[in-house]
Amino acid sequence: MAALNPSTIRRLQKLQQVPSVWEGDRRPMAPDSSPTIDPDEETKGDCVIWVDGSQGMVRAMDMVSPDTGPEVIVRTLLKAMEHPQSPAPAVRPQKIVVKDREIQFFLRGVLQDLGITIDYVPDLPLIDEIFRGLHEVAENRPPNLPPEYAESLLEKAYQIWDDSPWEILGEHQIISIELNEWDLKELFVCTLGKLGMDYGVLFYRSLDSLKRFRQRVVSDRSFEDLEEAFLGQDCLFVTYERNKDDEDEDDDDDDYGEIVIGNLPASEIKANFG
For residue 180, which phi and psi values (nearest 5 degrees)? Predict the structure, then answer.
């Protein structure tokens, strides 16, 4: 993106230019320091952020791949101008400050027809404060699984995958497990996987909850209704998906060249709990 196209420039020039100073930056997000289901997995990415320093508000923020070029900074800036995420009008700032010389020179070239001053500053106090807050939230986030049970739960989850109960049980076949512990008399278990689409095991706390969910699936047609019904289930679950690191492999294809997840070994599968 050496320059904006003429139609984009004309559109932005129509925005009111206000005497405000915006801060912009692109920073790598530190991996979540709290334990996760998979301790080897890290969330990687860069955060592009634009804030109105005069108003003290975030106008746009995007997570991008570290491999993307500087044009993502411009895309997020255009979003900040035309479609801010905060309740603010679409405007064009009078001045932009960044703490990266390369970003400064890049923006000067791209935005040269918009009448915006782009300056370099050694510090961006507002953005620094925002990122400190983000890192504090990440550090204090509770783990997805209780640490004392994580290893055991993962072991059992992959044992279930190896046993593949969905090869025997259909989704309509429900198993009752009597517990009489932890304020639970019994759990009602159904499996996913017989159709070769989704794989997992669902543990309902009551038979009524299972019935209500299935009735809603039959009656609700829109994606939003189905999503609401799924999220409203009173159950525990473990579901399975393919490890992202293994998605380029070509083994275990079906006749149409698509991966059959059910044929993969546990080493290529990720378990998700909820």
Answer: 55, 40
Dihedral over alpha carbons 29, 34, 38, 42 (to 10 degrees): 10
| Helix, strand, or coil (residue 78) | helix
- What gap in Å lies between CA 70 and CA 80, rounded to an integer? 16
40 and 89 together in one domain? yes
CB 15 within 8 A of CB 82: yes
CATH code of the domain containing 135: 3.30.420.10
145's CB contacts (< 8 A; 6+ apart) are 35, 37, 153, 154, 273
Give the domain-ending residue among 114, 140, 166.
140
- The per-residue pLDDT string of the chain (274 residues; one tens digit each, 9 = 90 and over) reads 567 888 899 999 999 999 999 999 999 876 553 333 343 444 568 899 999 988 889 999 998 888 888 899 999 999 999 999 878 899 999 999 999 999 999 999 999 999 999 999 999 999 999 888 877 877 777 777 788 888 999 999 999 999 999 999 888 899 999 988 877 888 999 898 888 788 999 998 888 888 887 777 667 566 666 666 666 677 888 889 888 765 555 555 544 445 678 788 888 998 888 8
Domain identity same for 212 and 125: no
CA pair distance 147, 220, nearest whole angstrom: 38
Distance CA 206, CA 238 (A): 17
Interatomic CA distance for residues 40 and 31, integer angstroms: 11
The tokens 């800036």 sit on which residue?
77
